[in-house]
Design goal:
The chain is of the alpha/beta class. The protein has a single domain, classed as Aldolase class I (TIM Barrel, Alpha-Beta Barrel). Helices cover about 35% and strands about 15% of the residues. It contains nine helices and eight strands. The protein has an eight-stranded parallel β-sheet. It is globular and about 45 Å long. The structure holds 1,3-dihydroxyacetonephosphate. 1,3-dihydroxyacetonephosphate binds near residues 193 and 215. 1,3-dihydroxyacetonephosphate binds near residues 163, 193 and 214.
Length: about 230
Amino acid sequence: MIFAANFKTNHTRKSTELYIKELNEKLGAKKPEDKVYIFPPATALDAYEGDFKIGVQNAYPTINGAYTGEIGVEQLDEFDIKTILIGHSERREHMGESQEKVAEKFSFFQEHDLEIIYCIGEPLYIREKGFEAVMQYLLAQFEGIDINYASLIIAYEPIWAIGTGRSATVEEISTTHRALKKVIGNKPLLYGGSAKPANIKEIINIAGVDGVLVGSASLDADSFSEMILS
Ligand code: 13P
């Protein structure tokens, strides 16, 4: 299983260091085959030591250059960051990243050999239209994306389940993952959206779920390690 923590705009450099120290004390007990990822804010990136990978939540598709406020490959290389989240619904929604921009970013970081966790997910009004509408919406988010890229992990995160405390049901996750697996083949497929210690077991036991991408419940090292060790 893959357990990925997306801190979003939470934690500082100092609190991330403490978090990693706490997490490291727990990770000795994790199953060797389980993989842990941590995506801290850009200001807290560093080459931390431990049984996990540090990734970046976002970067600009450039090595370096005149892109005020952004970071590129040169800044990631400094901390040996080799994993990136692309296509998160919060970036599509709040930062206005179009499918075209998301696909450009994907191609660039693919060319630079970064491992990509590519996020897709539908808003509530689409879920309410029924399963066919959901799949149509999700498949459109693969436009311009090379799903055969070797270092690709997909994360299905229904927008209405993110940060709401209300996870998708086992049935919703199961049917959506089954349909997505037909498209993405053997790529790992994570679920994200209000995953937490109370529901982690039932989520990771669903066929077609290869792990979780966790926001709120990952912010506390105890809560996240409880999920990993569940
Ligand atoms: P929550 O776990 O807070 O719902 O966030 C999920 C998410 O967006 C992870 O990328």
